[in-house]
């Protein structure tokens, strides 16, 4: 894709503004994880993925992305709109009746960019593996990407899928874990610790990469590019991406409490002030 780093950093600010405004407008939604994954989405859609517009569900000879932790739909929808999948003003319909932008993404509404319904946690890895195997059967050289919450890894289906992917050498898949150590009820370590995640994923036969600066756009681009260089070597690839829930809005950081809560009018104004944009492009 043809974006330079400065343009992408401005996009990240714009997407964060969109996230706050969308969730505030309907007093519901998930800002914390959305803000924490902004650099990942900007890197993926601005640099890393090879995709075609206009969007088609067929997905042949292009990279595919599956969002498994579907509740962070605000960052997904804003990214899709800001990278040309659908008109930006449609972001104003987020979570409204008859909107294509439902709280959790589904394919039923036909929103361009959404390839699977998600939000029932634990299922997206299996879907991504199926798509990656499909590409192999088709002789399609493109890659499949997926994103998962760290709390989501408490779901049993994830571990069956991890085992399956290694056994079947699904080496055209790059899965990323949003490793913020927060989930809806508290810190992941308090709710049900993942233990030594790096060692566990490695023991399950995956190529495991780790990036400590998941909210540094250049670092995220670099680790995703490195992950691409590790594909087609017999192992599925996973990135443990350390992020900060609520990144970019100070009062939303350092806590799990903004997992699924909307800012009020004063909090929105404060957040927007922190996400200063010289050339406002709000929808
Ligand atoms: Mg989390």
UniProtKB/TrEMBL annotation:
Entry keyword set: Thiamine pyrophosphate
Cofactor(s) needed: thiamine diphosphate
Domain Transketolase N-terminal, first and last residues per copy: 15-270
CDD domains noted in UniProt: TPP_TK (cd02012)
Pfam families attached to this UniProt entry: Transketolase_N
Name used for this protein in its record: Transketolase
Record's keyword annotation contains Cell inner membrane: no
Family: Belongs to the transketolase family.
UniProt cross-references to InterPro entries, sorted A to Z: THDP-binding, Transketolase_N
């Amino acid at each position: 894709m043809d974006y330079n780093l400065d343009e992408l950093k401005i996009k990240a600010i714009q997407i964060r503004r969109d996230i706050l405004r969308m969730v505030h407008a309907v007093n519901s939604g998930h800002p914390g994880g959305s803000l924490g994954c902004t650099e990942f989405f900007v890197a993926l859609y601005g640099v890393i993925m090879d995709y075609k517009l206009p969007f088609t569900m067929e997905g042949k000879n292009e990279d595919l992305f599956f969002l498994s932790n579907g509740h962070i739909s605000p960052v997904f929808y804003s990214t899709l709109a800001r990278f040309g999948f659908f008109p930006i003003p449609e972001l104003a319909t987020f979570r409204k009746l008859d909107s294509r932008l439902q709280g959790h993404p589904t394919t039923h509404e036909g929103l361009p960019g959404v390839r699977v319904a998600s939000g029932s946690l634990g299922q997206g890895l299996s879907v991504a593996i199926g798509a990656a195997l499909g590409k192999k059967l088709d002789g399609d050289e493109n890659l499949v990407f997926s994103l998962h919450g760290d709390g989501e890894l408490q779901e049993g289906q994830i571990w069956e899928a991890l085992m399956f992917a290694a056994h079947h050498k699904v080496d055209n898949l790059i899965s990323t874990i949003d490793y913020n150590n927060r989930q809806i009820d508290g810190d992941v370590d308090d709710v049900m610790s993942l233990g030594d995640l790096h060692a566990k994923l490695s023991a399950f036969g995956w190529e495991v990469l780790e990036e400590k600066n998941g909210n540094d756009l250049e670092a995220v681009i670099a680790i995703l590019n490195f992950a691409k260089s590790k594909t087609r070597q017999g192992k599925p690839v996973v990135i443990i991406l350390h992020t900060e829930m609520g990144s970019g809005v100070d009062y939303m950081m350092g806590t799990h409490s903004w997992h699924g809560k909307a800012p009020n009018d004063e909090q929105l104004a404060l957040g927007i002030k922190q996400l200063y944009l010289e050339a406002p492009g709000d929808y």
